[in-house]
Amino acid sequence: MTAPARFRRAVPTGATYLLLALGAVVTLAPFVLSIMTALKSPLQFASQPVLNPPDPPTVANFTDLFGGRYDFVSPIVVTAQVVAVILVGQLLFSVFAAYAFARLRFPGRDALFWVYLATLMVPQAVTIIPLYTMFADLGMRNTFWALVLPQVFGSPYAIFLLREYFRSIPADLLDAAKLDGAGTLRTLRHVVVPISRPILATLAIITVVTHWNSFLWPLVITTGRQWQVLTVATAGLQSQYNGNWTIVMAATTVAILPLLVLFLVFQRHVIRSITITGFR
């Protein structure tokens, strides 16, 4: 290959890597800035440019966050409990509903599915007041179940995602299970779910990230500290302590770390679910 030809091939490749590098910088810069700010003292943050690294770094913000002054342990525990219950419910009920829409035949199946899917177009803000009124009338305001019940029975996006994946499973595989005497539940448990692990892992990550970062509904339905979730507690730090950004960034860093660990653990399954499923 001649030098001009190699140059013509190298230019698009170099431009692609440059765009990817710029995208990575734009994506990672807020996280890096958050960690840098969390490792500064309030005096350093007030007297130095924002982009200056902490000199010297300090963990005082993290010790203050968990040392009793700000009581940040309770919101983490509440958020973890809420996310765990919602995750189990979302996976369980979404699998059942998606399999019914994908593989079972009953009158009005497709019409019911598309009507249900159309609720994705309804903004959350539209349903906040009716939901709040409903839970208030039931005496469930500021309770754990008020945080989880609106989301625990599946969601249109989760059901749509799983339905499309279940439809890609070869019918011969399911017919073979039926010939072996497996009913619907046994087929679902021993055939469909095991081969759907990549998409289930993806759905699990989406569910955890979505509800770990949920803010509007917990803010509306809860008051006080008992059932305060992580996002509401972080917002409270900003207003309660007059914009102490080093503490706020420490809280933000703590909130982000579990999500990063979750993605690193399950990234292989996510990539598999996005690329070739093996059935198409």
Structure description:
Belongs to the binding-protein-dependent transport system permease family. Its main location: membrane. The chain crosses the membrane at residues 16-39, 72-101, 113-132, 144-162, 199-220, 245-266. With 280 residues, this protein is mostly helical. The chain has two domains: 3-63, no CATH class; 70-274, MetI-like fold, CATH 1.10.3720.10. Helices cover 74% and strands 0% of the residues. It has helices spanning 3-38, 42-47, 60-66, 73-103, 109-117, 124-137, 144-152, 156-167, 171-179, 184-195, 197-212, 216-221, 230-240, 245-274.
Essential attributes:
transport, membrane, disordered C terminus, globular, transmembrane, mainly alpha, 280 residues, MetI-like fold, 14 helices, cell membrane
Q: Which helices and strands, and how do they pair?
A:
Layout: H1 3-38, H2 42-47, H3 60-66, H4 73-103, H5 109-117, H6 124-137, H7 144-152, H8 156-167, H9 171-179, H10 184-195, H11 197-212, H12 216-221, H13 230-240, H14 245-274
Helix pairs in contact: 1-14, 3-14, 4-7, 4-8, 4-11, 4-13, 9-10, 11-14, 13-14
